[in-house]
Amino acid sequence: MTSRLFAVSFDASQPRQLAQFWSGLLGREVVDDPHDGFLLRPAEDSEFHIRFASNQQPKVVQNRMHFDLTSSSLEDQQQTVARALELGARHADIGQGPEIDHVVLADPEGNEFDVIAPGNNFLAGCGFVGALACDGSQKVGYFWSEALGWPLVWDQGEETAIQSPNGGTKITWGGPPYMPNGGRDRVRFDLAPAVDVDPQAEVDRLLSLGATRVDTDPTAGRLVLADPDGAEFSLLTSR
């Protein structure tokens, strides 16, 4: 049995306020996180939670993961942008040219996200959160496909993408050139072992796939690992 993707986790200096921003934008309910911080409940069984945990380390580089939000029409795209700005987002410049048809924004703590133009066939049927777009190698796409048991739905050049067998948000890796590593990633994966699996056995499986151990904190109920690209993720070891 594989781990499930329990949450995409954001570091936040004000986790409650950031959770409220994303709750308003995505229409998801905010609940207390038994581990730390706040959670947005998934709208569908195929989706993951979104987690906001307190961390005062400042954001210094562009995140290596960001959400791509989908649009059904140009009017829908404009309404999403307007709603995000009203909730506290701002326009962001990450070097995109004037020819792009998506809108790049940043949430109140500077986490980038895109509002994609209508007619994107790759994200068709994926829901409002169409993709979690990641900076990373083909090798790490293969790793996460095995780690989560999600099939590859794109593997061309050095770009990869995976998706839950139940559908929903795709996770993509864009291949080179890679972004600079700014230290601890503010956006990370939180995995949870299957209920009938010994957490240590799952650690061993992830290590055999190419993960490395970073830190152990039994009091926090999580083990910090890194994927083959060095991006950290957590395995929640407490039930």
Helices and strands, with pairings:
Blueprint: E1 4-12, H1 15-26, E2 30-32, E3 38-40, E4 49-54, E5 65-69, H2 74-87, E6 90-91, E7 103-106, E8 112-115, E9 129-134, H3 138-148, E10 152-156, E11 159-163, E12 170-173, E13 187-192, H4 199-209, E14 212-217, E15 222-226, E16 232-236
Number of helices: 4
- Poorly predicted segments: none
What's the architecture in CATH terms? Roll
Shape verdict: globular
Structure description:
It contains four helices and 16 strands. The protein is α+β, with helices and mostly antiparallel strands. The protein has one domain: 2,3-Dihydroxybiphenyl 1,2-Dioxygenase, domain 1 (Roll), CATH 3.10.180. β10 and β11 (159-163) form a beta hairpin.
Quick overview:
With 239 residues, the protein is an alpha+beta fold.
Keywords:
single chain; 239 residues; alpha+beta; 2,3-Dihydroxybiphenyl 1,2-Dioxygenase, domain 1; globular
